[in-house]
Amino acid sequence: xxxxxxxxxxxxxxxxxxxxxxxxxxxxxxxxxxxxxxxxxxxxxxxxxxxxxxxxxxxxxxxxxxxxxxxxxxxxxxxxxxxxxxxxxxxxxxxxxxxxxxxxxxxxxxxxxxxxxxxxxxxxxxxxxxxxxxxxxxxxxxxxxxxxxxxxxxxxxxxxxxxxxxxxxxxxxxxxxxxxxxxxxxxxxxxxxxxxxxxxxxxxxxxxxxxxxxxxxxxxxxxxxxxxxxxxxxxxxxxxxxxxxxxxxxxxxxxxxxxxxxxxxxxxxxxxxxxxxxxxxxxxxxxxxxxxxxxxxxxxxxxxxxxxxxxxxxxxxxxxxxxxxxxxxxxxxxxxxxxxxxxxxxxxxxxxxxxxxxxxxxxxxxxxxxxxxxxxxxxxxxxxxxxxxxxxxxxxxxxxxxxxxxxxxxxxxxxxxxxxxxxxxxxxxxxxxxxxxxxxxxxxxxxxxxxxxxxxxxxxxxxxxxxxxxxxxxxxxxxxxxxxxxxxxxxxxxxxxxxxxxxxxxxxxxxxxxxxxxxxxxxxxxxxxxxxxxxxxxxxxxxxxxxxxxxxxxxxxxxxxxxxxxxxxxxxxxxxxxxxxxxxxxxxxxxxxxxxxxxxxxxxxxxxxxxxxxxxxxxxxxxxxxxxxxxxxxxxxxxxxxxxxxxxxxxxxxxxxxxxxxxxxxxxxxxxxxxxxxx
Length: 679
Hints:
Layout: H1 11-14, H2 35-45, H3 49-56, H4 68-71, E1 83-84, H5 86-89, H6 114-117, H7 121-126, E2 131-132, H8 134-137, E3 149-150, H9 160-165, H10 169-174, E4 179-180, H11 182-185, E5 197-198, H12 208-213, H13 221-226, E6 244-245, E7 254-255, H14 257-260, H15 285-288, E8 301-302, H16 304-307, E9 319-320, H17 330-337, E10 349-350, H18 352-355, E11 367-368, H19 378-383, H20 387-390, E12 397-398, H21 400-403, E13 415-416, H22 426-431, H23 435-439, E14 445-446, H24 448-451, E15 463-464, H25 474-479, H26 483-488, E16 493-494, H27 504-507, E17 512-513, H28 525-528, H29 532-537, E18 542-543, H30 545-548, E19 560-561, H31 571-576, H32 580-585, E20 590-591, H33 593-597, E21 607-608, H34 620-623, H35 631-636, E22 655-656, H36 668-671
Antiparallel strand pairs: 1-3, 2-5, 4-6, 7-9, 8-11, 10-13, 12-15, 14-17, 16-19, 18-21, 20-22
């Protein structure tokens, strides 16, 4: 049976990972929770109960008694330590540990300090004192004490000084200063502090004056002369640092001018020679006003302590470790009253002055004519730290709130869960003023930044040289995301609108549309705004099918192309992508010359009066290339006037396997050149 766990538990071992792992009183879990299988196991163990009892009992009447130390040999060397825990010394292991139980290992009777205070009742009373050491109040005695044995007195795990400084890092840094209290230098923290609890702040053993008086003779003539014969019964810490200071005699870094000059009588009545503190000449701010200008105390808005005429709420009267003789660190002091701001320190975005505790960077401490005791008007205050933003005021287009100096309509002065310490998420904030834009959220097709509420992807929040407060020119903003479109702008043929200042917005909406691609209107109506001549062609008898369906983009690129008229492909290749039968015809031996030049040599692109959408009626179209008065031409046509003929009756218009583009099947007399037989 492995009983290794009887050794002193480490901090991690002693803390159960969950409530279910805490041992129950008596060390054994409830039998009912183990079910039938556990009961069966218990029955099997009954013959061994006597043996287990004999192993653990201290009753000498049981034959073959064995002690815990006989198995836990690793604990035996601890017996040689100078300081032993009394139960360990007397081998009364069960004072703290339960027996084996069904967990098959020894466990503590309690995981908390309740176990320790069953013997140390004096410390149990300490838990009710006003100021309790955090390690003690958090129920972890073993964070400072060893449970079995140790070299240090009181079973401390380290020397008292090293033990204290492993948590109190700030005091460790203080020891590097020029003037260090002797007890601190010798790491004798227990000289002034109670290790467990006290009714005094900082777990000090008694009132500061009484505590200091144990080493310093207050009635010594030299001591009284150094303090101008004034009593120090009220305490030493108003002038002296308790641990260390950069100044001699442990004087605080910031001293009230009369104190630094030894002029106690400037504020106090003459010393009485007794132990009572000399009374002040005047009470409250009336005394301070003797030296400090009253102008700083007046204004439309007055700080509450000033109203109450109690300067000592914020300022120390003798000395301080903080600037302006503040009684505490600026942030800590302000938050004592402004408790609603404490939660702001936990948000993700905190205004730097507030995070650094520099409340006075924005606020005056006494009085101001401005709301919130602001040092100056909000815009001036903000721009004093954000000069680059201030330059935006000279922009051609300026955000109204920014122009009016109303920074707080968008930004929280202390902190926010939103980027740039905005008072709301960007989308909600912008919609507060831009209601018509908000209405576009119901449209079917939405710009990705718009649907994601990322207004600042395209717009600046303060000012811009571009309309709509765009970050840069509209086209430049768009192509940052639409790189493929930018590439098209470098092609030989570019849509004319692309060369305009707000090119993208000529065809597209900035936020949303009911038309795919965020077009302002569906084609062909949108295209016809510029291409009216094309739209008029739609009134022809026959209209090209893609044009009739408004599918302009079937043939034309929206932005740029290597082909004329922004065609998506070379003329013939584009047409044959739909007219596959013609593509097959072009593979024949004889191909009509205009086919090589492009389909638009003969056909109109959008519509016409002829079902073939020819640019001219036949034979006029054919005779624009073939000269009817040419002798060879007339001879080949047996002198029949071509001006009155329909060329398509004898010739294929695209390609043929026969010379002269003759049709595949010809009338026998015609094929032999015997036109006269019929004509």
